[in-house]
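Summary of Year 1 activities. Much of the first year was spent building the evaluation harness for sequence design. The harness presents a backbone, in tokenized form, and records the residue chosen at every position. We chose the following record to illustrate the format because it has been used consistently in internal testing since the harness was completed.
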């Protein structure tokens, strides 16, 4: 069962008192100092608890790994960071294969907006996609079943299952808003979302026109150079997977020069 721990520094060498519940301090409190533990009398326990700082810690009942430190600290403990990386394995942007060991650990619900430092609210993102997640028009949420849902400025949604399977969420496309059902992405999508494609998307977002909080960013292109037909600047067509991802329309609007 998850347990709460209390700590109180009474000497420079970090002496702490911990208990399963504050109300049971008299019978189950222990003193930890220098790697050693010893039972603590009830009177001393009450004194330490009254003058100490209580922290909420949820731990795995089997391994004892801390899974949730709430709002007590921004950076996750080492054991929690390891648990996040072991679960996610790679950057969790659909298609990105950067190993979790080289990724940042980011709060899904931002810390500045009340997000907690917990296993459910943390995920691994590579440096590029960490910045992309905080770009206007992009959003990331986690469902109760552990799946991650990404939404792009083009209003395309992706669901990333815990096993890495990526699904495009149902949407309406075209001038007649034709319904397009959910579709599982092909395995080769990770080879298509190269650094060059991501960098081009980032450049386009930086060029985005000013927008209001109720409207997503809108890209504006100056078009081809005088005398050049539309699209003459792109020497190769975009891969079909980028059209399936809904990213081709964004890439076509990025100012190439």
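For this record, the design step produced the sequence shown next.
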């Amino acid at each position: 069962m998850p347990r709460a721990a209390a700590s109180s520094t009474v000497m420079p060498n970090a002496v702490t008192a911990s208990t399963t519940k504050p109300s049971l301090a008299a019978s189950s409190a222990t003193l930890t100092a220098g790697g050693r533990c010893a039972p603590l009398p009830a009177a001393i326990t009450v004194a330490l608890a009254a003058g100490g700082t209580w922290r909420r810690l949820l731990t795995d009942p089997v391994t004892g790994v801390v899974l949730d430190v709430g709002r007590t600290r921004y950076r996750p403990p080492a054991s929690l960071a390891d648990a996040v990386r072991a679960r996610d394995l790679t950057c969790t942007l659909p298609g990105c294969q950067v190993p979790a060991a080289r990724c940042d650990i980011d709060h899904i619900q931002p810390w500045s907006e009340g997000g907690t430092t917990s296993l459910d609210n943390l995920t691994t993102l590579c440096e590029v996609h960490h910045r992309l997640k905080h770009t206007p028009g992009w959003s990331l949420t986690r469902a109760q079943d552990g799946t991650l849902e990404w939404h792009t400025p083009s209003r395309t949604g992706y669901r990333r299952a815990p096993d890495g399977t990526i699904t495009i969420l149902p949407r309406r496309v075209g001038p007649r808003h034709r319904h397009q059902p959910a579709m599982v992405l092909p395995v080769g999508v990770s080879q298509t979302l190269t650094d060059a494609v991501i960098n081009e998307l980032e450049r386009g977002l930086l060029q985005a026109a000013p927008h209001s909080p109720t409207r997503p960013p809108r890209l504006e292109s100056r078009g081809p150079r005088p005398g050049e037909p539309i699209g003459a600047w792109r020497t190769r067509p975009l891969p079909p997977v980028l059209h399936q991802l809904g990213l081709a329309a964004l890439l076509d609007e990025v100012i190439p020069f």
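The radius of gyration is 25 Å. Quantitative recovery figures across the full test set are reported in Table 2.
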